[in-house]
Design goal:
mainly beta, globular, 188 residues, four-stranded antiparallel sheet, single chain, eight-stranded mixed sheet, 50% strand, 15 strands
Length: 188
């Protein structure tokens, strides 16, 4: 188990089991039941593995984000799922998912933000948003995001923020480590 979120009637955890994404549900945190497997929890190619790395919930909607890793030099692919109860999950579309990474997801006043350092062939700045979890759009494709690697996000009624590191101005080797970086946008 890599992530957990509270629901109106319990908790949902996500992770992986046997190379496939997996979810567990509990009403009280003491007794856990594994959610029925779904074809979307498995890898699209042999030898690949899928895992859930983040779960968030808001207003009767729950989302999970994760990655498929094929191994070797194959790039990772960002994956997402949506649920209304934490027990039945459906796959979501993710824009610019190939060669992307996602490490976390957060509920915000406008929906959800998922973040993770990603390649320039993916969502360059590694920030995806979704209003309800069914479709995810890249919010960080502009060349100004070059070198930004977001690791977490949060939102208030007036602003959404992603934090992470940047290699901008440092190249591949930055003395003392990469400096912190922040992305934010106002919520109308």
């Amino acid at each position: 188990m890599n992530a957990i979120a509270a629901t109106a009637d319990g908790f949902v955890a996500g992770g992986d089991a046997g190379g496939r994404a997996a979810f567990w549900w509990t009403p009280d945190g003491l007794s856990w039941t594994r959610v029925a497997d779904d074809p979307s929890f498995g890898a699209s190619s042999s030898g690949a593995s899928v895992q859930v790395v983040g779960i968030a919930a808001r207003e009767g909607s729950m989302v999970a984000v994760g990655m498929q890793q094929a191994g070797g030099d194959s790039p990772p692919t960002v994956l997402a799922w949506r649920s209304s109860d934490g027990r039945a999950w459906t796959p979501a579309s993710v824009e610019r998912a190939t060669d992307g990474q996602v490490f976390s997801v957060a509920a915000t006043p406008t929906g959800f933000l998922a973040t993770g350092p990603s390649a320039d062939t993916s969502c360059l700045g590694g920030i995806w948003s979704s209003t309800d979890g069914s479709a995810w759009a890249c919010e960080a494709a502009d060349p100004a995001f070059e070198g930004f690697g977001p690791y977490a996000a949060a939102g208030s009624p007036s602003v959404e923020i992603a934090v992470g590191l940047t290699s901008f101005g440092c190249g591949e080797d930055c003395p003392g480590g990469f400096p912190g970086a922040v992305w934010w946008r106002s919520i109308p």
